[in-house]
Amino acid sequence: MRQPQSLTDCSLALHTDEYALTMAQSFWRHGQTGVACFEMTVRSLPPSRGYLVAAGLEQALAYLLSLRYGARDLEFLSQRGIYSAEFLSVLEGLRFTGDVDAIPEGTPIGAEVPLLRVTAPRIEATVVESSLLALMNHQTMIASKASRIVAAAEGREVWDFSLRRLQGPEAALGVARAAYIAGCAGTATVAAGARLGLPTTGTMAHHFVLAFGEDHEQDAFEQFLRDYPGRAVLLVDTYDTLRGVDRAIAASRATRVSLAGVRLDSGDIAVLARLTREKLDAAGFTSARITASGDLDEYSIDSLLAAGAPLDAFGVGTMLGTSADAPTMGGIYKLVAQARGAEMVPTMKVSSAKQTDPGLHQVFHTESHDVIALAEETLPGEPLMQPVVRGGAVCAELPSLAEIRERCRVRVAALPVEVRRIHEPQPWPVVRSARLEELRDRLLREGGHRTGVKVA
Amino acid sequence: MRQPQSLTDCSLALHTDEYALTMAQSFWRHGQTGVACFEMTVRSLPPSRGYLVAAGLEQALAYLLSLRYGARDLEFLSQRGIYSAEFLSVLEGLRFTGDVDAIPEGTPIGAEVPLLRVTAPRIEATVVESSLLALMNHQTMIASKASRIVAAAEGREVWDFSLRRLQGPEAALGVARAAYIAGCAGTATVAAGARLGLPTTGTMAHHFVLAFGEDHEQDAFEQFLRDYPGRAVLLVDTYDTLRGVDRAIAASRATRVSLAGVRLDSGDIAVLARLTREKLDAAGFTSARITASGDLDEYSIDSLLAAGAPLDAFGVGTMLGTSADAPTMGGIYKLVAQARGAEMVPTMKVSSAKQTDPGLHQVFHTESHDVIALAEETLPGEPLMQPVVRGGAVCAELPSLAEIRERCRVRVAALPVEVRRIHEPQPWPVVRSARLEELRDRLLREGGHRTGVKVA
Lengths: 456, 456
Fold this sequence. Notes:
Two copies of one chain form a homodimer.
Chain A: H1 18-29, E1 35-42, E2 52-53, H2 57-66, H3 71-80, H4 85-93, E3 99-102, E4 108-109, E5 114-121, H5 122-127, H6 129-152, E6 157-160, H7 171-181, E7 186-187, H8 190-196, H9 206-210, H10 217-227, E8 233-235, H11 241-255, E9 261-264, H12 269-282, E10 289-293, H13 298-306, E11 313-316, H14 318-321, E12 331-340, E13 343-346, E14 361-365, E15 370-374, E16 382-383, E17 386-390, E18 393-394, H15 401-413, H16 417-420, E19 430-432, H17 434-445
Parallel strand pairs in A: 6-7, 6-11, 8-9, 9-10, 10-11, 15-19
Antiparallel strand pairs in A: 1-5, 1-12, 2-4, 3-5, 3-17, 12-13, 14-15, 14-16, 17-18
Helix pairs in contact in A: 2-6, 3-4, 6-7, 6-13, 7-8, 10-11, 11-12
């Protein structure tokens, strides 16, 4: 069984909100260590999103299964003065021993659906909340944005160029992975190639051309062509873009090295792309590709292609890597049930506007909508939540990145066009089963208190 | 001399865009290894920002000075099939040997100002671009946002609660550090306490209360008060907020443990805060504090305080940690000069709308504006760019986080009120010196080519 892969070699044990540890200590001290069940859901779709693409599960599992409090972590906690030596030794021995059920990565989903469920001794389920959410929120946010950009590119390659604009360099691996799941061709981030085997790419920067000084743009191009025969993509807008194209053609002829392509990074890309294509074709460089970059997103790519810009590939940085129009994913991790003796009792938070669905859930996918149901229900459609971890060990074959990407491609393509469209998409419909509605209503009437209803 | 502190134990050597390595190899192969000079600048202020707060320099320096290509990195690069064994051995031995000048962290700045300059052998200066930018862009973005939130809170504590909504868990350390620089009281992220010594805090989650089942909210409060005497902040909105306040009071009385405070996380916070304060005061709990949380930002905090909400502290998550209204910082890293023999020749990119300032720069700060000048100029005002690394070693005492935070406090307070205000702030004015304008104009006329003007 393949083990889930982390994107970091560093410990994330203390990457938690402090309350998780103080609550865990209180639970432990008072013997409140029975099984609790938490589900992660995204309450509402961000603006301009008809669906989300579930992503990040493999890293969430890697985090859970590798969680260890090391000597330095415990030393720091000890100095905080609020944790007892006994509790710290509990943390020292803590391993995730619980179960995880989840919707497979690459699945398009709507709001309020459980992406993931953790069923574990309460202390374990408590301490993992913050990093689990950060890992899932991040990749789901990026995959959801990237899916739109890939759709706008209509089959042309989209490459992740975002590293320099992220929340620190470490975020680049999650971005590259999620973007690839959603259909991007790959990334410029070398570490994502090294760690995840993703395709990587690179063109050249303006400073490469400037390094050659006055009137030596063609020298720069010739050197790069000779150094990277068959793969050099020349950046032509350092001085004058169309003169740059002429020089790229001349450099290819002078070196007898074929020109893989050129990159346009500024100016009126639609006009420049057309004129560049004409120049390349007139020179017989019909296989040379044109890549566009520079603050692109799904809207500008859509406009460029609608204007007939003959572009072959897009390098998308900021807008992809930060999901700039919807830069947060509001995934929450809520207690849905807890053990009372031998039974699991559903629970919910009833406070205004932040109500949660009580009980353990299954999601049934149909062609027109998804249904959130109680876990023990059997309804028409395909059940999306699958067991992935049992007793702290992976219990199902983890899909490869290629399989996740293909799943995403097929399932996004099957969504109604109004859900998939770039402009003002309709939200993918999600409804609740009659039994779930009934349980919700009853608990709301009773103030969110225990019902004794056995739900699993 | 204190060495700069990294926020990660993991290598960032491959956290680079691929073109940096392919360009570096080309430079190396052709002996283009002379000194090059790059400056990082932010081209324009994001919407709703009157100024930026420079942050991230210490981690940028730690990255530069610890950069090493390890065996695994080189093995991966070797498998790429585009790097020669000779170049990989160059990378293996590569150490940053150059100079860094920078504006000190915590300094409020305007657009187009150089935050940082790297002067180094061209290969070194080339390979560090992506991660250097990611580190600086991230913390500068967060400090700039946090500064506004802190201003809105008018002296009340602002705490970073953002971990779960970030671009992966690792981003939390940079957020916490930058937020603290900008005046936040601390963070909920435990790792930021462990690594940076930042104050950490935590209250409780709804699931702590739910763990006690029906009608046992007061039991939950009593247990938490007993477990954390003097520091327990009770979350009162799991069921009914005002009933929760009554129960918090009752729990404090029953346990004879003083109530540090309560947290309001939903509902009409302005109204609830007033009613909560009345209840607390009526019960004699005048020192119990009220913390608000739940999708807060500078605008909602400003509104709450304008409405007279008696709040003592704010837990700010998503909007702080992602700078959600301006979630990207467009810092760029541009070649400004390069060695030709014994002289440094200024250079600039002239392509439309993305022109850069040629030459090495100093920034002179005055009470009413900043002036970007050539490095050899002496103008009225305080020069902001300072030498921090010479020959690959730290050459100036690095300020402590407390000193950086104090610098930020004093200098932000000295900005004109129209630059500091929350709503529609005026941009902090930045102008160019006459000599810089002259050089820019000349290079633009000459198409960005070398001039032979000696600038340093």
